[in-house]
Amino acid sequence: MTQIGLISDIHGNVLALEAVLAELEREELDGLVCLGDVAVGPQPAEALARVHELGCPVVMGNWDEWFCEGIPPADDETGRKLAEIGEWWAGQLSTDDVALMRGFSPTVALDLGGGETALCFHGSPSSNTEMIFSVTPDETLAQILGDARARILLGGHTHVQMLRRHEQSVVVNPGSVGLPFSDWTPHAIRIAPWAEYGILGYDEGRLRVDLRRTSYDIDALLRLSLESGMPHAQWWADSWQR
Known about the structure:
Blueprint: E1 2-7, H1 14-24, E2 31-34, H2 44-54, H3 62-69, H4 77-90, H5 95-102, E3 108-113, E4 116-120, H6 138-145, E5 152-154, E6 162-166, E7 169-173, E8 181-185, E9 188-191, E10 195-203, E11 206-214, H7 218-227, H8 233-238
Parallel strand pairs: 1-2, 4-5, 5-7
Antiparallel strand pairs: 1-10, 3-4, 6-7, 8-9, 10-11
């Protein structure tokens, strides 16, 4: 059986990433893929360097692209705070870091063996900002996926773990390593106290999806954030459930 580790939405959280990698190292994996949004978070350069060390394919997330091309303006208070924090995080990256992110791919075709390929993306195959949820209507999902007809579709972006069927395809989201959401509304973000990832297994038509959570030292991450000098640090820290 081919086994692939799935990580996404690291969001500059190296403490969570290391906890996930420690568990993945105990598995007999044939590969690893990152589904985007690596550097946007309290440890942007460190997270980018750690993912680069892994040597795995990396999909271009929306924040990865914004760090390269500029963060778009926001039209609500939460969005404005996130944009201001994002600008501060982006300022921690070197020109070499940005060049590394520019090398991320919009999509990745992952060979699972036996003639099967998984299509990897961030939001959707055509956009890194589109969102696919378990409750997205089939008709809407068909429009989002467009001409993508791979039987195994792997995406991130929503920060919510998901496994759902669509026509002849299975759509998988391993959740977020560094910023999993327990609640997300226009006026409030609640961040869950764990790190999320997944493992995909494939063998001659048999598919296995294992969605996982693991713990790490969240208090250490929040101390680091509060001491970093980033804007809205207390608001950021108060968004976490502990």
